[in-house]
Amino acid sequence: MYNAVLRKIIFIFIILLIILPTLTFAQNSEKILTEKEKVFLNNHGEVKIGFLDNMPPFSFVYKNEHKGFSKEYFDLIVEKTGMEYRKIFGTWSELYKMFKDGELDVIADISYRQDRTKFTLFTKPYYIATLGVYTSDSFGIYNDVSDIADKKVGLVDEVFYEKVLKKNFQHMDVVTYKSTETVLKKLSSEEIDAAVVNVNLGNFEASLHRLENIRLAGRLNYKGIEDEDVRFGIKKDLPLLHSVFEKAMLEISSSETALLLNRWINITPEKMKNLLPFKYHVMTHKIMDKKDFLTYCSDREFKPLYFKENGIYKGILPDIADKISKEYGVKIKHSAPPKGANCNELLAKGKVDFIPYLPSNVAESAILTDTLVNISIALVTHSKKIHSLNISEMTGGKVAIVEDHPASGIIRQNYPLFNFVEAEDVSDCLKKVHSKEVKGCVATIPEISYNIRNKQRLNIVISDILEEKFPLKFVLNSESENLRKAINSIIFSINKNELAKIVKDWSPSTYKSGIDFIIIIYVSSTFFVIIAILYFRGRYLKKLHMESKRYIKILSNILNGISEPISMIDKDYNVIFVNDTFKKYSDKDYVPYKTKCYHYTEQSDDVCPGCIAKGAFEKGEMIVNEKFVKWKSGKESYYEVRHYPVTDRKGNIEMLVQIMVDISEKRSWRI
After folding, report:
1. N- or C-end of the chain: fewer Cβ atoms within 10 A?
2. Vertex 58: Cα angle to 53 and 59 (nearest 5)
3. Can you give the pTM of this predicted structure?
């Protein structure tokens, strides 16, 4: 009987798995499309869409499988509309001709141009791609497009900027090829002097084929040739199809787009500003600079970010360091600090080259590299809950975080009203949830997964993936600017998908506690009774979750939009929040975890004499004082500083909000 009941339960779940995706498609299209648009899709049948087969990381075919950013973005459109389609693959010139001749309904990865509007309805851009100039090693210095005005320059066939360059630079010898790969190979063999291509694509192809004698010299930056907008082009006589695409694209959330960007896109226009030219075969010489190897140091262990086991350093960071060593020939090794010393001291003295970034370990004089990879942060709650809790439901409850944990500073900064409890490590954090000592634990997904996999079974579950992520990057000595730029060049050129795989290998995707079949049988027997209750409760909780996130975002935007400096400190004088104005004036983009207010603003090691904040904490009432402040940014002003105590439900003072109002002008009137 037990087996028969279990078989029925499995059968029900299989049926649900088959039905639910269909219901989702139906609900999505019902929600966003008009009746006329639905009738059009039904009558039109398959939408013929052209995709490039050779434009990584946007659209390419690898081992007979379509991959890339544009492919997955289109998948989201299909998911939201239920559209039937047929893909046609080819080169840009092939697809563009087919689209102009009316053989395709849609073409992906097209840029807006006025002359194309005669036969094209353009969607809004789904990406803005940077146009870069690549040159050979012997080319010399590139400042702007005038440096290639009399050179032989390679382009891909039918790109929009070909006509502009030919018209405005009559001495430029413009030659075109079928693919970016061919253009760069011609450059590598010095058959051309320079190439103008999409940087994402150029970087991918150069990395994939290990092309030597190539460097990214800079951006094109020419009036009339802006960065390349990437859109869908719809046949002019299909306005309803254009409307379907536009509506579906509006339904794609920023978090969905961000996920695709993190997965596929290596470079943005902003990142171009500080990049050095890179050359694969001379990268080692740039970085090593007469060194036999680079060294990094870490004081604490955060399994599996980086830790020591049987005398060997393991984890995500060591694996990334090994990959850089193999890919670029840069030898990197770990150096443990001597007894009584710490990594920050070794970095300041130049005895190590870099240390892993923690919000709490960054000295004021240190400099940071770009982000290697973003580590996801999650909320863990007790598994014996009728529904999974999300981060917005933690307000008012106890939430455990690890002291000096990579994610703790970010969480404290973004959720200053939470009642945080410090744990010794992630294992302790999870045990506090299991014992119901706290409502939840927040840490990175790799660490949560590692501890769950290697420790005893706990009644816990990952119940929410946060929008915030921990950026894994390196901290360098302030005198190591050339090393920083060289490492940034590696970060720019390294395959981000392979880095993401390293993180994934240390992070099992999901975790659930052990199955209790007695509970399953009980739940299945009452399934149809409570499903309606859970459905409506789930809708309410989802709405509540979305509203909570919206209000938190609104509050954050309000505080950051105020032109007066605003800060929050706890009872131990730790700075837990500063708004953007405060950061701007203090010339800092972050506040290290557990930074004392007197150290942050006055560079003092103790509470300031006659501290007004101390008086506000003791009296429990708002206190106002006037103060002259000379900010690190150079701004000097007289301020009226207002200290507002904030209490919990029981009337206990939890924190102090300080608002600084510039009264310099008013004070001059008084004088």
Report:
1. C
2. 20
3. 0.44
So what's the pLDDT on residue 469? 85
Q: Give dist(CA 533, CA 536) in Å, integer.
A: 5
Please provide the CATH number assigned to the domain covering 131-226: 3.40.190.10
Residue 225 sits at the vertex; the CA angle it makes with 224 and 227, to the nearest 5 degrees, is: 135
561 and 656 in contact (C-beta within 8 Å)? no
Domain ranges of the chain: 33-127+230-265, 131-226, 280-368, 562-670
Q: Where would I find the beta strands (DSSP E) of 412-544?
A: 419-423, 440-444, 460-472, 474-476
- Which secondary-structure segment (H or E) carries 348? helix 343-348
The residues, any chain, with a CB within 8 Å of residue 20's CB and separated by 6 or more, are none
Q: What is the fold of 562-670?
A: Beta-Lactamase (3.30.450)
Token reading at 54: 């050779």
Q: pLDDT tens across 293-322, in order?
A: 788 888 778 888 888 888 788 888 888 888
Radius of gyration of the chain (CA): 29
How far is Cα 126 from Cα 116, in angstroms, rounded to an integer? 18
The stretches of 128-179 forming alpha helices (DSSP H) are 162-168
* pLDDT of res. 357: 75
Tell the CATH superfamily of the 280-368 domain: Periplasmic binding protein-like II (3.40.190.10)
Rounded to the nearest integer, the mean pLDDT of the chain is 78
pLDDT in tens, 396-428: 788 999 877 767 878 888 887 788 899 988 889
622 — alpha (psi -120 to 50), left (phi > 0) or beta?
beta
